[in-house]
Amino acid sequence: MANLYWRNKKTDKQIAIKKFMEILPDYTPSAFTVKQEGDDSGAYLCVYVERTEEGEEICEDLPSKFEGWRVVHVYCPHEYIKVVMDAKRT
């Protein structure tokens, strides 16, 4: 029965990510990014939100579903997005 909840039609990946990035400032003052990822259960949108310098996790409850996509919320260390995720690959 749980798979019926996730069975809806999904918005295009790039459009869903763009829309989510536009509303995320309403949920957190921290740095964030959204990426499409997948696992054995299928594709999902992964929302990475940085902790503060003090290690606080500041983010309102995110929806579990957005534009038909399953949403996974991951807290990461302060400046992780800039230093690790957005770093240029050599």
Describe the overall structure:
The structure is a single chain. The chain has 90 residues and is of the alpha+beta class. The chain contains three helices and four strands, in the order ααββββα. A four-stranded mixed β-sheet has the order 1-2-4-3, with helices on one face. The longest helix is centred in the first third of the chain and has 11 residues, at 13-23. The chain is globular and about 40 Å long.
Could you give a short description of this structure?
This protein has 90 residues and is of the alpha+beta class. The protein has three helices and four strands, in the order H-H-E-E-E-E-H.
Question: Count the strands?
Answer: 4
Strand proportion, as a percent range, falls in: 25-35%
What does the average pLDDT come to? 90
Main sheet, how many strands, which sense, barrel?
A: 4 strands, mixed
Strand order of the largest sheet: 1-2-4-3
Number of helices: 3
Indicate the structural class.
Answer: alpha+beta
What is the helix/strand order? HHEEEEH
> For the CA atoms, what is the radius of gyration?
14 Å
Estimate percent helicity: 10-25%
Quick tags:
single chain; 90 residues; alpha+beta; four-stranded mixed beta sheet; 4 strands; 30% strand; globular
Write the layout of secondary structure elements.
Elements: H1 2-5, H2 13-23, E1 32-39, E2 42-50, E3 65-66, E4 69-76, H3 80-85
Parallel strand pairs: 2-4
Antiparallel strand pairs: 1-2, 3-4
